[in-house]
Design brief:
Layout: H1 2-13, E1 23-26, E2 33-36, E3 44-50, E4 56-62, E5 70-74, H2 81-95, E6 98-102, H3 116-134, E7 141-146, H4 150-157, E8 165-169, H5 175-179, H6 193-196, E9 204-209, H7 217-226, E10 234-236, H8 248-263, H9 320-331, H10 362-366, H11 374-380
Parallel strand pairs: 5-6, 5-7, 7-8, 8-9, 9-10
Antiparallel strand pairs: 1-2, 3-4, 4-6
Amino acid sequence: MGGVTSSVAAKFAFFPPSPPSYKVVTDELTGLLLLAPFPHRENVEIHKLQTRRGTEIMAMYVRHPMATSTLLYSHGNATDLGQMYKLFIELGIHLKVNLMGYDYSGYGQSTGKPSEHNTYADIEAVYKCLEETYGSKQEDVILYGQSVGSGPTLHLASQFPLLRAIVLHSPILSGLRVMYAVKKTYWFDIYKNIDKIPYVDCPVLIIHGTSDEVVDCCHGKQLWELCKDKYEPLWVEGGNHCDLEQYPEYMRHLKQFITTVERLPSRSSSSSGGVRDDGPTRRRSVDRREKPRQSTERKPLPPKSQWKKSSSKLRISFDHHHLDRSRRSLDCHDKTRKSIDHSHQVERGRKSVDRFGLLRDPSIKQRQNYVWNWNVWSINA
């Protein structure tokens, strides 16, 4: 039953472009991988990555010479690296970050078939590449998930508590909630973001269009309410599902968020290396409160009427050993405890003087033809 449910979910949840919008070629002189028909760029590197589920996915790394952070971008449905290529270049330039984008299994030139668990293995492989090939650390990585990409993004974020920040672009509460207003999570649902976001510890920015016809804006608003570390959200007035990049406030607000989180101090590593081995489980308390100390209060002497009866029992020994222990006990009270303050309040977004407006890309309009057609599927079903 579970396999049937996953198969049906994959059919209506994933729409990889057919045919893919790009091809992978090898440069004859350098031996480097290139994406055709795009010209070679010195700051762009193409990778083929093996996942733990046996698929081979394509990834694209855009380097910025002044970057201090890396944006790991999980794109939306019905698109691939070829359609996202120009946007990735623009984001890297104007946000001054390194950017890693990738295609899910079954998308573009990646092998395999798209599924929820394959996308989880895909983003894990990409993150591993950032660590091993480029030396990225959790504190330097900002996750970005658009639409269906919010699923693998929150999957990874729930396992790595030391990430710098997260951006959720037109996110979903869960796959089933896109079609039906259910109030609880069912076992056969996919991308249960509503259950994972409470375990995310880093700052979260949510961007959603108020006129989104595919994923209602209420998804983004409810996820924002569940965030631990909320950043001022961006509700794009009149924005739809695939056109938010065309609004000037999109780039301004995103740029301000990146600048703000980069100024925050890095999160210290935990004893387990900052990784949750058992998935989305709550972190252990780091409160180092002192253990209760033994009382040094002396017991009162008995009344004088009893002194004669028990004179032999009231002799108090003042040997040096007893005095030394008392002094050591009293000295403990003079030591001050270290303050453990783990609260980092995120600076609220300020108005930016940046008037940059992202160039309108015709490929963005083409992507509107490949959105999650949940309603059509549910009617035909």
